[in-house]
Design brief:
nucleotide binding; binds dihydroflavine-adenine dinucleotide; globular; alpha/beta; proline dehydrogenase; FAD-linked_oxidoreductase-like; TIM Barrel; about 15% strand
Length: about 290
Amino acid sequence: MRRFVSAAPGTKQVVDRFIAGETVDQVVPIVEDAVGKGLEVTLDVVGEDITTVEQSHAARDAYLELIDRLKDLGFGEKAEMSVKLSMFGQALEGGHELALANVRPVVEAAAAIGTTVTLDAEDHTTLDSMFAIHDELRKDFPQTGCVIQAYLFRTEDDARRLAANGSRVRIVKGAYKEPAEVAYQDKAEIDKAYVRILKILMDGEGYPMIGSHDPRLIAITQELARRAGRKLDEYEFQMLYGIRSEEHLRLAAEGHRMRVYTAYGTDWYGYFMRRLAEKPANLLFFGRSILTK
Ligand code: FDA
């Protein structure tokens, strides 16, 4: 499947909608353009589920190369990084320690240029390790963020803990196929859980980052922030590059902090397939574009 999708003639055109480029040189002008328009970014070097220790070192080096370029641009926290620990070898034998050892220099380098890193949430089996790494990194770099997923039953408890300890937390609906034993399956149930978690975050001590394109959740966020007495710089919205771009600009123009999750790199397969799965129309469009080439 991976080989077929990667080689299909119409793939590139559809991938380009969601992936900002393959190299640091290609993504830097996109960051400059976004910041020039009043947006902020979180940069993701695509990649996940690596199988060798060397690939973990390569992941570290790819982020260090990016940070080295960002240093000269002086965007500070306007350009932060998102990382997937499975790209740092979390699933390998001894992978928890390996991922921590290789992500730490990235967090350190980010802090040295005045910015930070957020740990993405992957499938539910990885989360205890992700939260433990997050706690460990926060001892030296308290601004390190993490992601929680509204579809998981465990997340309200995670949100309470993170909100009480003052963490930066991105809340998303969740993008992995999870079993009914651990996650809500019904969209309306997920949305309700999202709102309950939003309340916990807004009423807590931390910095909520609202990762969603859902207009209803955006309106609810604004209302909950108002009720919690939060100023515009005490939370932020986040959306994905290539999705509802007009809305990015509208919220920024209203004075909100709007951060665009900007993925780039060559190992885009997993990221791209999750974007296709989120919206049936994307699959139809993709199917048409490979058939008509
Ligand atoms: P929903 O899926 O209901 O979409 C609302 C509307 O947004 C749709 O009607 C459509 O208009 C538009 N839209 C949404 N997705 C689209 C798509 N793929 N293509 C075209 N239009 C689309 N997940 C995870 O498990 N771990 C993580 O670490 C992250 N990180 C992350 C960061 C950021 C900044 C965002 C915005 C999202 C994530 N996600 C994630 C993904 C998240 O879990 C979820 O799958 C998507 O955001 C889609 O959910 P929405 O909240 O946008 O609502």
